[in-house]
Amino acid sequence: MTTTVRTKLNSLYRQWLPGTPLTTEDLATHDISANLAVYYVRAGWLTRLARGVYCRPNDTLILSAGLLLLQRTVVGLHVGGKSALDWYGVRHYLSHNPVLQLFGWTSVRLPDWFKERFPAQYRRKRLFDEASDAPLHADPFEKRSNTPRVSTPERALLEVLSEVGVSQSLQEARELTESTYSLRADVLGELLQHCTSVKTVRLCLQLGRELALPWAVKLDPAQLPTGGKRAWVSRSRDGLLVLKP
């Protein structure tokens, strides 16, 4: 191996954080071409995860680093729903094998290298009227730098409720809602105003009232998109769901 090739590899390793996958574009910023990357893989100095994605040999990938890479290619990608609630300590029970819930704007298939290490489900969903590059209340986790985008507890609850009758049981949604005593009414109200799902808005208001949660009394249904005066009715595996305005 020439001195130049050795120098490039050493320089890369000095700056490469363990557990972080890199793309061909990332390697190019270190003056490592696609052909040179192939050479490193054959020599055992790089491990190829997928076409154009690499990691250190025998490295254990870090979830946050994998999510940050996916965010670069999947529009609107963020941790949401039950997973986001769990990250913020809002949970009804502990799961031994939790499946990471991811949401985004486009129809994509999560790469195998990610799913093999981090069991996950991805849903294409546009629950709010928002910009893809500035989703409402889905920010870097705890506002820290170099962390993946995660729904706030307020947004995460609405994402859970939006799945009721689809992939989410009403009973579990109710139990999770019961644990959201400390939600911020102003943040929840803003999200509800931009929510495109009448079912989600009505279910949130209904459960909040039934469970006597403090944020519920601070929301004015007249200022929210609750739809018309007719009841919203849906039949699912949980039975008949009737949501009044």
Question: In short, what is this structure?
Answer:
The chain is of the alpha+beta class and 245 residues long. The protein is built from ten helices and ten strands.
The termini sit apart by 72 Å
Q: Percent helix among the residues?
A: 25-40%
pLDDT averaged over residues: 91
Oligomerization: single chain
SS content category: alpha+beta
Main beta-sheet annotation: 3 strands, antiparallel
Which strand-content bin applies to the residues?
15-25%
The total number of structural domains is 2
Give, in order, the helices and strands.
HEHHEEHEHEHEEEHHHHEE
**Mind telling me the C-alpha Rg?**
22 Å
Strand order of the largest sheet: 1-3-2
Total DSSP helices:
10
What is the β-strand count? Answer: 10
Which stretches are low in confidence, meaning pLDDT under 50 for 5 or more residues running? none
Give the CA-based shape. Answer: elongated
What descriptive keywords fit this protein?
245 residues; Arc Repressor Mutant, subunit A; three-stranded antiparallel beta sheet; 2 domains; single chain; alpha+beta; 10 helices
Explain the overall architecture.
The protein has 245 residues and is α+β, with helices and mostly antiparallel strands. The protein folds into 2 domains: 3-55, Arc Repressor Mutant, subunit A (Orthogonal Bundle), CATH 1.10.10; 63-243, no CATH class. The protein has helices at 3-15, 24-28, 34-43, 63-71, 81-87, 112-117, 153-162, 170-178, 185-193, 198-210, and strands spanning 22-23, 47-50, 53-55, 78-79, 100-104, 120-124, 138-140, 149-151, 232-236, 239-243. Strand 5 (100-104), helix 6 and strand 6 form a beta-alpha-beta unit.
